[in-house]
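Per reviewer request, we include the raw input and output of the structure prediction for the construct analysed in the revised manuscript.
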Amino acid sequence: MMARIILGLGRFLFAWLLCWFAFPSHAAAPAEAPIRIGVTVSLSGKYEGPGTAELEGLQIWVDDVNARGALLGRKVELVFHDDQSDAEMSAKLYERLIVQDKVDLLVGPYSSELTLIASGIAERHNFPMVAAGAASSVIWEQGFNNIFQIDAGAATYMHLPLRFAKQQGLSRIALLHAESEFPQEVVAGARKEAAALGLSIVFDESYPLGTANFSRLVERVQAAGPEVVLGGTYLDDSIALMRQAKLSGLSPKLIAFTVGPALPEFGEVLGEDAEAVSYTH
């Protein structure tokens, strides 16, 4: 997941920077001055896993660009701060990146929750921000001019597994999701798509972000008898859900989660229990 996002982000950044520095007012910096790209990343807190992956991906891109002779004749420098997976902290740090660090371009934080708040800072300063890890349509419906999307919309994430289920003659769907902006929109889109396909939703529940014990939830899912289980998840909850599913003997024909299965930690922690779990995007 992150490799694809960073590839798309790299292409976007190159095109945007080419246009931005083509204007004389932005091209006046000395040739040796680096192009500074600012970002807040979740190196701690609930988004630590994907947040760390975002930082690593950006660092790989910066190293690659600089190793190949820099960008527009100038080195690229990444300026980052730990937002601790907190939206208000992220907003304060983007203010710092613009006002104190004086970066040339912003890359958005991980998650729709944090990007929604951070995009307001970018808009207030009329400063461009590329969203690297956010998919909620609420962000794009604010009418802002300075936030740019490279990811697919969250509401479409479950379309593929639902259409595959329809093709395979599977009709009983269970939906579960964390109580956060992104997974809520994922499941809202799944409800609409399931209805359009004539599929039956036999289970539909949410759980607080940070939940670790899913025994009762999985019991209720199992009692509903779904053929397909779809989860609007992150990393830790997707791991905990699969552990509990195996312990409880929950074995639907298809399981698809967001975020978690795309990260290496998912397979490293679960081992064989990670097999047959689909990642949807």
